[in-house]
Amino acid sequence: MRRDVRLLGDLLGAVLRESEGPGLLADVEKLRAAVITARRGPAPARPPVPPQVPAGDAAGDDIAALVASWPLARAELVARAFTVYFHLANLAEEHQRIRTLRERESGGGPLRESLTLAVAQIRDAASDPDVLAHLLAGLRVHPVLTAHPTEARRRAVTAALRRISVLLDGLGDVPGSAAPAEARRRLREEIDLLWRTSLLRVKPMEPADEVRTVMTAFDETLFRVVPLIYRALDHVLTGPDSGAVPAAAPAFLRYGSWVGGDRDGNPFVTAQVTRETAIIQAEHALRALENATERIGRALTIDASVTPPSAELSRAIAEAEGAHPELLAEIVARSPQEPYRTFLLFVTERCRATRLRNADLAYPEPTEFLADLQLVQDALASAGAARQAFGELQHLIWQAQTFGFHLAELEIRQHSEVHATALAELAGVAGESASARELSGHALSGQTQEVLATFRVIAWIQGRFGIRACHRYVVSFTRSAADIAAVYELARLAMPSGRAPVLDVVPLFESGEDLDNAAGVLDDMLKLDPVAARLAEKGRAVEVMLGYSDSAKDLGPVSATLRLYRVQARLTAWAAANDVTLTLFHGRGGALGRGGGPAGRAVLAQAPGSVSGRFKVTEQGEVISARYAHLAIAHRHLEQVTSAVLLASSPGFSGSSGPVAEQTFAIANRIEAAALRSYRSLVDAEGFAAWFARISPLAEISGLRIGSRPARRSSSAAADLADLRAIPWVFAWAQTRVNLPGWYGLGSGLAAVADGPGGLDELRRAYREWPLLAVLLDNAEMSLAKTDRHIGARYLALGGRPDLTALVLTEYDLTR
Question: Which of 90, 231, 301, 656 has the most neighbouring CB atoms within 10 Å?
């Protein structure tokens, strides 16, 4: 990695010299050397308690003076140079991760957090040989991609970095100085292009831009990695026979998307945007399936005399010839005596017709496409061509099962207050028992019209692409069953002359109070007639979403983590008591202050019984590019999550239970109470919101064109912390290098136990025995490692509130 950073840094230096002259590079090097010198100086003394507000230090003041001495234009160029440098350094780190993965894979033994290890552990622990088969039959891993604005890079920048990544990969292990001249020339050309590309968006992002960004992840990585992860599991299950026998690995992945569907606080996501999003997704799914089918079909040059087709395949070809004689004649002319190739090329044409809306030839639904693929697979297997049946063709079947014709299940999200406002307006216009027909002649507000149009577009999507394409409706800030009933009532009113769309309404519990009341709300929800009818249709399956970002902003990271765990345990017990199959949908962000962190370990830290083979989670912003920009990293991420879901769902999984749990919960309660007091004493302090706005680039972050959604839920410009979204809250603290949402309050919480009976020994035992506490502390440790007390203190001092600065630094020192 050091070699790669040096190579890329040297090439960037050459670009700067060539583009801007030697002066800019000299200023960059002067600043870099000054910071390195300051960092390598004597270690700072232990901070005083209570901490002093820094009066400044010689090295820091000299660096600040250097930057202040430059004209604004030069300072911007220097900042731009460092930004490009850090992009390149991060790219080198990504390559090191891939290099490390490959070295571990070639080491002989199974990787930690791998499917191989998970399956072996389950087999060893299970007394019943059917346990693994049962787990696999119910396995479902469901990532949901969102457009939350946490990816600050432009698509043009990520595209440039992707090209540089490919070139760097091509160098292999060649030392930078020995890299071929042409390779260095191409790298320098791409770095020069990156330097000249605007790093900031000139115009605000629109929902369509966000849809295109997510489509890039599907096209370049997800569609390719999905069959590879299934094949990896199949290798574990069937060994060297994988690819020559029927697949044992099920298609357990399902992707969802909020992009183009999440309208909570985003007025730019309209019914028309949702409609266009569904069309774009289907276009990408059908094109990908079409290309894969054509590739496999053209390669399947199996002669009928060597491998005769089954009667079923022959009959299908004859039926196709009868319905489309000219098309079949053209295909057969290119592949005579090759029935498998003939039929798959015919299937390709049907895929193309589905994409182009040619009704005579199109597939009405993906199940028919799948049936045709499985017909070819069965024919090949029965003719003895097992490797052709269960190799690449199986990959295509897995892709079709996972993505269908819709690519990702589009989910709608809206705030409960919007529904309540719309219902109140409708009742005022046409009375409490208004029918859809009675409303048609009345003038309604733009917001209410848009709410009703959303339900009509859901019905349109279901009619065009199937119910699976769009049927979940997430209600933000669900506080009662009435918030769920409102959605069904609005859906009824939206359809004056047609059937309401099929809906699975998903309550989203976010604040501390709402999390505590979740089970009671669900009790009342089950009594609603539309919910009862839907439960009967789908085997009493219920989905509940838990919000990590807003709960952490409301309660602090410690209390939110522990309260979410308790809610999971309570909802698991509630599901068992009500004979409900529960799926918990985890609304996690990428940053540690929004529920982020290593995904596999997070799964294993869930409350016992709460996973049960089903794990659904949001993946957003920078997480999408971090996890899905490279095939090897995407594969590793999905393997870690899947192996954790299998382990957490297995009967032998040792979650926190019994006497150990009772003792640990007592410790957790003491930690939580003290942590919550510490956190609320800070954020409830008089003038805190205004102080936070002064010490951080909150206003600048809120104005960045990194997402279509506003930074605040309402249009009020007042400094109200409750109205501020969790993303700019976390983002602003990260820019100050304080990273407060990832650790604040933990020090007070741990001290409350360490200073009592049992002391540190009790904490250490809980850390060893309870996965959740281990994850909580390890994530906080990671956040503290990214915190810079020295720089953070300078930011805090900008607020002119030494009392608040002292609170933050005292808690930092205690937590550390």
Answer: 656
Per the CB < 8 A criterion, the answer to whether 682 and 808 are in contact is: yes
Catalytic residue among 87, 419, 471, 553: 553
Which pair of structure tokens corresponds to residue 695? 């010490």
Q: What is the DSSP string of 380-396?
A: HHHTT-HHHHTTHHHHH
Read off the pLDDT of residues 704-726 as tens digits, 9 standing for 90 and up: 766 555 655 555 444 567 767 77
Look at the chain and count its residues. Answer: 816
Closest CA relative to residue 614, chosen from 141, 244, 14, 27: 141
What does the alpha-carbon distance between residue 289 and residue 245 come to, in Å, rounded to a whole number? 23
For residue 50, cis peptide bond before it (omega within 30 degrees of 0) = yes
Contacts of 382-387 with CB under 8 Å at 24 or more apart are 382/310, 383/307, 383/308, 383/309, 383/310, 384/307, 385/302, 385/307, 386/244, 386/245, 387/243, 387/244
553 is catalytic: yes
Q: Tell if the pTM clears 0.85, that is, is over it.
A: yes
What tens digit of pLDDT does each residue of 293-335 get? 999 999 999 999 999 999 999 999 999 999 999 999 999 998 8
Is a pLDDT exceeding 50 seen at residue 768? yes
What are φ and ψ of residue 175, in 5° steps?
-55, 150
Work out the pLDDT band at 689, boundaries 50, 70, 90: very high
CA distance 308 to 296: 18
Catalytic pick among 87, 95, 148, 415 = 148
Neighbours of 88 (CB within 10 A): 23
Instruction: Round the average pLDDT of the chain to a whole number and report it.
Output: 89
CB proximity list for 790: less than 8 A, separation 6 or greater: 44, 57, 60
Q: What local confidence, expressed as pLDDT, does residue 698 receive?
A: 87
